[in-house]
Amino acid sequence: MMRTLAVVVLVAQLGVAQPNIVLFYADDLGWRDLACMGSKFYDTPHIDRLAAEGMLFTDAYANAPNCAPSRACLMSGQYTPRHGVFTVGAPNRGRAALRRLIAVENKTVLDQRFVTMAESLKGAGYRTATMGKWHLGDDPTTQGFDLNVGGFKAGHPKSYFSPYKNPKLQDGAQGEYLTDRLTDAALSFIREKDDRPFFLYLTHYAVHTPLQAKQDDMARFADRQPDRGQKNKKYAGMVYALDRSMGRVLEALKAAGKAEDTLVVFFSDNGGHMGATSCKPLRGAKGTLYEGGIRVPMIVRWPGKVKAGSRSATPVIGVDLYPTFLSAAGAKRPEGYTLDGEDITPVFKGQVSLADRPLFWHFPAYLQGRFEKDMFRTRPGAVVRRGKWKLIEFFEDKRLELYDLSQDRGEKANVAATHPDVTRELHALMATWRLETGAPVPTKANPKFDPDAKPMRRGGE
Questions:
Q1: Would the pLDDT of 329 be above 60?
Q2: What pLDDT sits at residue 355?
C-alpha cells in the first residue's frame, strides 16, 4: 500500500494525467479477419470505427504462434526463453515416429517471480481487472488483478453458451452467450464510481474453438459469398459478437465520460485457425512461424495522442505493450526487471519508426496438424525479423529460409541462397540473442523417430 501511495504522489507531482487503459485481446483472430484489414466476408463495424478514430498497425505481431506463450510474453513483458512458456501443453505434440528431436521442456504456468503489467500498473495507482481467458495458471488475482471474471488455466471454453462449466464464472440464464457475458462484466467495471484510473484486460475466449455462435449472428451471413477462403458462417457470427463487444465498450466509455482519457488497444494473441478462417495473402495460420501464424491486427485509439485514421507499417510486437502502458501511465519500470519490448508511444505520434530493430520468436517445440505437405504446423524453430527481412531457422535440419516481406508478404520465395550476406547477418543476430536470453535449442535425437514411418492421414487439431 505504501509503495502504491508513493507512486501516486510521484505521478501527481510530475503532472502526469494517467489515462485509463483498455486492452481488448481477441483469441485466434487472424490478420485479415476484420473489414478494416481487408475482409469482405466478416462484419466488424465497431472495430472499423476504432481504426477510423485511431491508428491501424499493418505489421503487428503476436509473441508466439499459439495462445499460452503469446500471453505469457504479453503479461511478463519478456520473450519466451526468459519465462519458459514455449507452447500450449506438451511440447512434443504429434506422432513420435515423425519427430527427429526431443523438444525442449515446457512450462504451462507463468511463475510468480515475474512482475506482470497488471502488477506494475496496480503499483502506479490503477485498479485492475481481467475478464475472460487467462491460460497462465489458476488465478490471475495472484498476479496483479483486483478482479477476475472467467479466467483460469483453461485455454478455451467448454461452451460459449451457459452453463459454461467455468469455475471462475457463475452460470447465467440458459443460453446466455459468453462473449456478451464477459462484456457485461467489463461494462460494470468501467461504470464503477472510483477516481482511480483503471486497467481493463478484456481477454475474450472468442474466436477460439469450439465454433459456436448465436443464431441471429450467424443469420447475417446466410447469403454472404466467400472471400479468399473465408467462408465459415459460424465463425463469422463469432467475429460479429466480438465486434459487438467492442461497440458496447466504446459506448460505455463515452457514456461514463471516459472516452477522451482512455487508451484503447485492440490486439490478437496469434494468427487465425486454419480450420476456421483464412489468413491469405499471408502464408500459414495459427501454429506456424510464417506470417499467417504470428502477424495479427492491432489498433490503437488514444484521443489527442494518436491521429485519427492513421496507419503505421512499423513492425511492433506484443512485448511492446508493457513498456508502452507504463510510459502512458507515467509509471517507472520495475527495478532490476528486464522488459524486452520498446515503448511505442513515439510511434503513435509519428516521431519514431523503429523499423530496423530486430524482433524475435523462439519455438523449440512440435505442433501437430497438417500444414502444406508436412504433418506438423511447425517443427522446432526460430525467427528474426529486422526491417524488410525475415529469417526462419528450423532446428531439425538447420534449414534457413529468408524472405523479403516488402516484396513477398506471402513468403513464397526463399531467397537465402541469393542473399547470403543478409542470411549470415540475421543468423548471427539470432545466435547472439539466444545467448543473451538463454534460449534453449533442442539437439537430442528422438529414439522413437522412424525415417520410414508413414504419415498419418490427418495431423490432429
A1: yes
A2: 78
Residues with catalytic annotation? 67, 135
Range of 42's domain? 19-346
Q: What is the CATH number of the domain that holds 59?
A: 3.40.720.10
Q: In the predicted model, is pLDDT for residue 7 greater than 50?
A: no
* Residue 69: pLDDT over 80: yes
- Tens-place pLDDT, residues 250-309: 999 999 999 999 999 999 999 999 999 999 999 999 999 999 999 999 999 999 999 999
Q: Are residues 377 and 251 in the same domain?
A: no
What's the confidence (pLDDT) of residue 259? 98
What grid cell was written down for 227?
Answer: 472471400
Q: Are 164 and 133 contained in the same domain?
A: yes
- Mean pLDDT of the residues in the chain: 94
Q: What is the structure's pLDDT at 457?
A: 55
Shared-domain flag, residues 384 and 249: no
| pLDDT confidence tier of residue 456, bands split at 50, 70 and 90 | low
Residue type, 384: V
